[in-house]
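Supplementary Methods S3. Input chains for the assembly prediction are listed below.
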Amino acid sequence: MQNKNHFDVCIAGAGIIGLTLAMELKSRGASVLVLEQGRAMREASWAAGGMLAALDPANPPSLQPLAHLSLKLYPEFLNRISELSGHPVRIRTATTLLASLADNVPAALSSASFLSAGAVCQLAPAVDPGPFRWVLLDEPSLDPRDLCHALPVAVRAMGIEMREETAWLSTQSQQNRVTGKPSVHIETTADTFHARAMVHCTGAWASSGTTTIPALADALRPRKGQMLCLRLPADTDLRCVVHAPGVYIVPRGDGRVVIGSTIEDCGFDKSVSESALTDLLARAARLVPALTRATEVERWAGLRPGSPDALPVMGAIDGAPGSYINAGHFRMGLLLAPASARLMAQLLLGQPPDLDLAPYAPLRIAASSAA
Ligand SMILES: Cc1cc2nc3c(=O)[nH]c(=O)nc-3n(C[C@H](O)[C@H](O)[C@H](O)COP(=O)(O)OP(=O)(O)OC[C@H]3O[C@@H](n4cnc5c(N)ncnc54)[C@H](O)[C@@H]3O)c2cc1C
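Predicted structure tokens for the full assembly:
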């Protein structure tokens, strides 16, 4: 029988990255403990817009293999969560209308077939094509709040132990004298635990857990995003995401749309400002003029886990045997969760990875900082 405080893997952070990894490890036979300093799925994963923007030409090229793998894994991922939790998590929109300014078309779109203004109006009558060049992408979106309900329930239904209101404090690594493998002793605000591996999935807070790589401690920073949710007038129908420079509009399929977002470097402040939201709404209303007649439902801000090169940081933490990190997913963590979980689980369990993890290695940040 398993000692109640011993696990194969301990994960700090019950956002989408930590919980998805927990499910992946458990389904591969590992015992898993998840620690969460607050409530599960209440930080960046709750605040997100919900775009699964794997085809966004602004994505760094090295992100593409991970983004495409994740998008491929998504249908199965959502089915599994829905089945385990009994709460359906559905795709809310199937396509994205992407706008670029004619003098600033991303290189990745140079060979794309652009839509005429008439075609844009036919696809989405609520959209004013304005001065933009438009393409239609097969890029879906979901409502992250569906995941916030379902994912913690699914995790518990799998028999994964999750301790909320329990913060990871410190880890001490030891070499197991019999197996020669590392084992970690974990201090939390409530209890102590032992595991073969400790994974930091602590999002915007990850710096505080990775001080063994000095360069990483400064490199992973919160990036605030402010958001606005509105209800469209009854005569307005919008069924695809509209994504233009500096703003996006994500319909929820029930008359609500979410407008985002700022990218701010202001520490752990999550306040919303009238001026930022007014600016976002003005930009959005140039694309969908009916938004001037919409009513406000909700406003909020969240903290993206930012990394210097907009790539996630995934792998073993140098100098801390048994400690790993899976963080820094910045603007794409919702999209990247299933593939990140799969690759990290393969790494932790000594299985061959589906993709090369080198572009996401923690040491690249330490190395680039030293250079
Ligand atoms: C406004 C906004 C819009 C976004 N839109 C999109 C989008 O459309 N599409 C997309 O793919 N992504 C989007 N993102 C990005 C996405 O939300 C994040 O990349 C993703 O949620 C990161 O997940 P995470 O689990 O790493 O972080 P989080 O969800 O923040 O979870 C980290 C958890 O770790 C916990 N924690 C921290 N320290 C400790 C500790 N010491 N002990 C225990 N627990 C700890 C925190 O309390 C938190 O619950 C958006 C983000 C924001 C803010």
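The domain at 6-83+145-219+308-370 is CATH 3.50.50.60 (FAD/NAD(P)-binding domain). DSSP finds nine helices and 17 strands in the chain.
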